[in-house]
Amino acid sequence: MCHALGVLGVMTFAAVTAQTSVAIAPFAIHGAHCPRVADPKLDDARIGLGLALRPPGGFATVTMTLLQQGVVLGRIWQGRIACNAIPFEYAWDGRLAIAPSTQRKWVDTGSYEVQFEAVQDGTQAYSMQRRPLQIVRLGITEVAALPNGANTEWQMVYFKRGTIAGTNFYATPVLREYLNVADAGQVGDLDRNDGLPRASVAIHTGTSSPLLEGTAYEDDAYNYPLCYLGGVQPRFEVRFGGNGTTMGGLPMGAKYPIPGVMLRARLTSSLGPWTTNHVAIAPGVPVVFQGPPLPNRFARTDAVLQWSFECSTDGGANWQAVPGHVRTQHRFVTVLGVPRFGGATSTQYSGPWVEVVDHALQWQQAIGTDPATAAGLTEAVVKGFGGQVPGVPLPIEDVRYDTNILGGDGGASHYYDGSHSVALSRLLDNHQNGLFVNCSDCASSTAAMLGMLGVQGVQMNRLGSMSLRAIRGIGAPNYTLALWGSTFSHGFSYHHVVTRTAGTTICDACLWVDEDGNPNALPGTPGHNVDRPWSGSATSYQSLLAWAPISATLEPLPLLQ
Domain containing 21 — which CATH number? Predict the structure, then answer.
């Protein structure tokens, strides 16, 4: 039994009644509580139900039930607890076995009450309290990446549309890069047809093609990478779903806004906290969040975002946590500057190609260049493209220089069309135009890649005829003084290179010059041409490449095929 506090000392009954009357506190529930709003389908959602029993001492049987419009739907919990000042807490998962079914299922969205009942041992004294509970359905259906100032955010591009590489590149959707809604035949955006919550969409890790649904593009569940200028704070425009599915497979509404109750969302992430100025959320209404600064370097950052919710019944003066959360994952690519392309303005040229980013990141990490500088990124792309360096054993797509001593057909272009356009999509698609490349193929490809990664000032540079010193072509095992099989023809009628300094320095992924101090003899020491000075010293590009001065003509970035 729950006992009243004892009286200390010796006192006669008559004295007590003459001076005062001792009130014996009646048995009662104190502090019964539950969240005002809950969504049991959120991750880690546990609906905290609690109460305390007075006066302390003894035990009582407690029953918690769920009511709707005064009708008992089912028992949440029943058990025997002590009467004391420490509140009893029960974490409910939001499931009930509602007759005639014996299977415990999540309750549907709607307005409910939780009824707390207690019966004191021995006396059979009874106490009851009710608390309102609104079951809602909360979840993220759309995320659109927004710029944070001019030239700070771009769509990323897949070089294939589906399974075909070509001129019709696929730019990630500009309106929403994350989408998770009902497909044909499904009844709720936030839940599957069996009533279970729809899982968040994983990051699409493919680099060549967007997601497909059969032969069509996936249009209801995708999560594409995002491109921002390094150091920028990303901005997300988010929409919350308006419908789910009952455990019986029927559509149900999200059941908010709730009269007299405000709901808001909060966002934290592995990058740090996000801010927002929204007052309250509603299904389908966009809300903007701003994140912490992204890495101020060329990088790919995968982040986990955790969305939580709060409710207020006093106009926003005080807020109470809604149990549980939602997690989504997002991939951020940061570039050093505005992506540049060969004169094109359509969406297919909006931002860097996913495959190019993937290559450049692998090269940068393997070679160990500085990802925070244009010089470091340029070195990674030039050396990585040519390969045969520590960490990158092979050239891109395992290509080789188009010379007859390597089995080629004598220096022809296979990816550069001769009219200032490069079929980069064909090169990246398992060298679809063949294993062999020449200088124009290499220069146009590396120029396009550097430009789309945000390296500024990139141009092609066409050099005139020359007699060569010792060189090693891309994919070749050794240096040579007889590129075409004869020392008498060891030269170029022209040669394409890349510059980002209007010709004062040169990048050449097609070949290495010889840096052993004797560039006119074999075997040769690898001389990589990464921002190598064009002229003016014995180690300049012009000095190590050819016997005589070379003419040079600057050309713009190539168009893409």
Answer: 2.60.40.10
Regarding whether 162 and 130 lie in a shared domain, the answer is no
Side-chain half-sphere CA neighbours of 471 within 13 A = 30
**DSSP-based three-state secondary structure for 350:** coil
Do 93 and 217 reside in the same domain of the chain? Answer: no
The tokens for 439 are 């200088």
End-to-end CA distance of the chain: 86
Per-position DSSP letters for 465-533, written without gaps between them? -EEB-SEEETT-SS-BS-TTSSGGG-EES-EEEEESSTTSEEEEEEEEEE-SS-TTSSS--EEEEEEEE
Question: Do 395 and 362 meet the contact criterion of CB atoms below 8 Å apart?
Answer: no
Contact partners, residue 329, CB within 8 Å, separation at least 6 = 200, 202, 203, 223, 302, 303, 304, 305
Kindly state whether residues 101 and 155 are assigned to the same domain: no
**C-alpha closest to that of 237 among 108, 368, 147, 339:** 147
Q: Kindly state whether residues 446 and 389 are assigned to the same domain.
A: yes
Helices (H) and strands (E) in the chain, counts: 6, 39
In 3-state terms, what secondary structure has residue 83?
coil
Instruction: State how far the Cα of 469 lies from the Cα of 525, in Å rounded to an integer.
Output: 13
How many Cβ atoms are within 10 Å of 389's Cβ, its own excluded?
Answer: 16
Q: Which of 360, 364, 400 is nearest to 227 (CA)?
A: 360
Q: Is residue 352 part of a domain?
A: no
Instruction: Calculate the CA 436 to chain-centre distance.
Output: 37
Averaged pLDDT in 10-residue chunks for the chain of 561 residues? 34 40 78 97 98 95 97 96 93 91 93 98 97 98 97 94 70 94 96 97 96 91 98 98 96 97 97 94 97 98 98 96 98 97 78 97 98 98 97 97 86 90 94 95 98 97 97 95 88 96 98 96 96 97 96 95 87
The token duo for 218 is: 């996936």
Residue 171 shares a structural domain with residue 225: yes
In a domain, 225, yes or no: yes
Distance (Å) of CA 282 to CA 238, 243, 262, 267:
11, 12, 9, 16
Q: Give residue 481's domain range.
A: 357-560
Number of domains the chain is built from: 3
Claim to verify: residue 302 and residue 193 sit in the same structural domain: yes
- pTM of structure: 0.91
DSSP strand E in 396-454: where? Answer: 400-401, 421-422, 436-437
Q: Which residue has the tokens 């007299």?
A: 260
- 469, 492 contact by CB (below 8 A): no
Q: Check whether residue 463 and residue 418 sit in a common domain.
A: yes
Tokens describing residue 8: 């200390």
Cα–Cα distance measured from residue 444 to residue 416, given in angstroms and rounded to the nearest whole number: 7
Same domain for 555 and 434, yes or no, is yes
